[in-house]
Amino acid sequence: MLSSKVINDSHGQDSSYFLGWQEYEKNPFHETFNPSGIVQMGLAENQLSFDLIESWLEEHPEVLGLKKNEESLFRNLALFQDYHGLPAFKDALAKFMGKIRGNKVKFDTNKMVLTAGSTSANETLMFCLANPGDAFLIPAPYYPGFDRDLKWRTGVEIIPIQCKSSNGFKITKDALENAYERAHKLNLNVKGVLITNPSNPLGTSTTREELDLLLTFTSTKKIHMVSDEIYSGTVFDCPEFTSLLEVAKDKNMDLDEKIHVVYSLSKDLGLPGFRVGLIYSNNEKVVSAATKMSSFGLISSQTQHLLANLLSDEIFTTNYLEENRKRLKERRDRLVSGLKEAGIGCLKSNAGLFCWVDLRHLLKYNNFEAEHSLWTKIVCEVGLNISPGSSCHCDEPGWFRVCFANMSDQTMEVAMDRVKGFVEDTNRCKQKRTMWDTRRRSLINKWVSKLSAVNCESER
Q1: Are 191 and 224 in contact (CB under 8 A)?
Q2: CA–CA separation, 306 vs 95, rounded Å?
Q3: Deepest in the core among 35, 99, 122, 145, taking most CB within 10 A?
Q4: Whole-prediction pTM value?
Q5: Is residue 228 flagged as an active site residue?
Q6: Which residues lie below 8 Å from residue 365, measured CB to CB, with a gap of 6+?
Q7: What is the pLDDT of residue 328?
Q8: What's the rounded Cα separation, in Å, for the pair 428 and 425?
């Protein structure tokens, strides 16, 4: 006998978001060994600035050698560390987070809980803030992994806050209220709202007005407000990034125990393999419980040691953030211009590692079945793994998330060539269908005219 966790399908990994990955893994693109394979454009990784970190490591070999002042730190780091983490790392991480936010927000290390990535941080928060069967409201479209990260082991339900393309998928009061009422009609106890800021998959930073609205809404409802700010350092265009904590401070809510922030180095530094995340909360009980839970997913001591040294280098972090943003903008612009050449538009973005691409004009019909058919064709025939909007719970068919920072310039060119070829083929097929439809209508009209003439002769 196995547990219900094993035998049921509540893990959320049966969505097209994860199925696309499976197809990619069967036939991954390689410029030399498999040039006809599938290009991975469904993975939000930042590989554009690895050289900057590699150069720093070459200049500081003692850090990788686990040494300080020529003395070995191996034994100290090899032994068990306290759940709270290395003080030097937490100090450096707090300053780095403050720098990203223009030092408008300061972080107290006593309110930080280190976790093995933001996945662990978000799930731990759900365990702390909600019981099985409770609900969180999340603006949709949202990151497909939340259906696994937030729901699977915790038993928490997600109610989408449906945002519309007509206003650029902005969060509105009506959308919030509708989601809240929908949850109550389902007899769900709403415990909070969770956002990603900047948004995954939209690639846009949440505006100050939206954050103000969210804080007013959650305060009025007496529920929690969680902001996942894992992409905060990727904002490369206007408007600049505004943290939930900054707006809370302006509203004199900066000590509110129902406000929580999640962060990670997976996107800003491109280090998802290092598994570094954290929870920041004013709630002492949440911090205490989450710290105990963190024992199930600690960050290794050698990782903390390395990053404490890296993040403490003010010159490096300043240069890195500036150069990384520049490279992200350049790559975003390359994707947008390439898609534009193919007649494809995107939601205007200013952050993240992806664009929210509008392929509605390529759908045969305006429904999700047509979206799924288009997605299958793009993955299996065109050879591009992108994520359909339905996997992000978007209620408008035809939108897709396309990642741009996890590949080389050469691979990006391959992807753009494939997009252009696909659109050209699709347009040729449409033209042929249009020509055939026109000819068929002409033949029918001629047949009807002849039939009418015969009938008139008969009547005479």
Answers
A1: yes
A2: 16
A3: 122
A4: 0.90
A5: yes
A6: none
A7: 97
A8: 5
